[in-house]
Amino acid sequence: MRSSTHSVFLVCVFLLGSPSSVAQTPTPTSTPGSADMDGNGCIDSKDLVLFITDWCAAAHAKSASADLNGNGVIDPDDFFLFILAWQKTGNPTPTATSSPTDTSNATPTPSPTIPTGSIEMVTIPAGSFVMGNSGAERDHFCQCIGGPAVACVCEEPSHTVTFDYSFRIGKYELTNAQYVEALNFANSHGYLRNATNELYDGGRVYQNGRVLTSADAPDYNDIVYRGAQFLTAPRNNESMTDHPVNGVTWYGAVAVCNWLSEMSGLPLVYDLATWTSTNRQGGGYRLPSESEWEYACRGSALNPHRYDPFSFGDDPAVNLDSCGPSALLSANMVWCDDGISWTVAVGSRLPNDFGLYDMHGNVWEWCEDWFHNSYADAPVDGSPQLVQEEWRNFRVRRGGCHSNHASRCRSASRNYVYPGTWDFTFGLRVARAVSP
What we know:
Number of domains: 2
Structural class: alpha+beta
Strand content: 5-15%
Largest sheet: 4 strands, antiparallel
Strand order of the largest sheet: 1-4-16-11
Shape: globular
């Protein structure tokens, strides 16, 4: 791959000069493209050629398909992201035979109005746990920035995190019905915009210049916009209202937390002008910190499997970098062994000993933290990592998803992505401080 990449890159440089020197004006409202340039469900050498071609042509055509980080410029950062996406064989993209069914012509049904009080929360008690890779042989199936050669450095060093507070976290992943209700609330208050910063009229959803999600994008989610109203569309004649919302960026996850707080009369946690938390322990809805997420995932101190690869144990007969089969894993999580190409309704698998569902698999869940490629300077008090690494602009997501190998769904598994990126596997679970 390296030699072919180098050859195509040199052709680009020969024809047009260094791509990074091409004069391009950043567009604040630009949205990320996809490394699957030809949309065939896999990332391969054809996508590489299309990427480089798009990069070279940036001076001559208005094309954003190679702008993978959504900053309005096609530059070396996008090339780095493309190579990362190509290398992530442990996080497969849908194949042509398992791609999501187009629901653009389906008849959507309005989601029932769900009071935000019905977001069931579980209180996680104060305490301590050891965060990170256990060092056990079965816990080595991981991938960090730089690929397998760097081993599990991003899950190391293991370290004790102590919570001197209890907190509440969603019993389930946030559903389509709940996200759609919040979108309609936000739209009715004039918060939502389109790509040109005008009042929202369909397509990609923005707030304060950041993309949150998209309607009428059936390859990414089940949300449509009809008659000035967001609705949940069925998929394969099945209602999606109780499925976890997906196709949500980190900004879309943060924004919905504020909308839910406002709908419930709770204090707002985030300043959406700066996209920072200003009142994290005030009692409003927010994202969990990465350590809160893993603490909740592993279960209580009484859980005998707390430091196994999964909170429910392990199946030693299964290669964790495969799709099984495993009756134990499939009873407890939605992963690639299930042979499905989409999500399942929340709560369809067994809960952990805190009573939380789908902490492993179904959809990746956004955390508040900036991603660092090790825990060397990680907070040890339960707070999120708020310091951005100098050359990285990644946010953390945890838990794995329905299309992942088992290794990506382990309790210690971490993943990273640009905050403005969405995918059919990106969802969230809300948290709250225990009210004073």
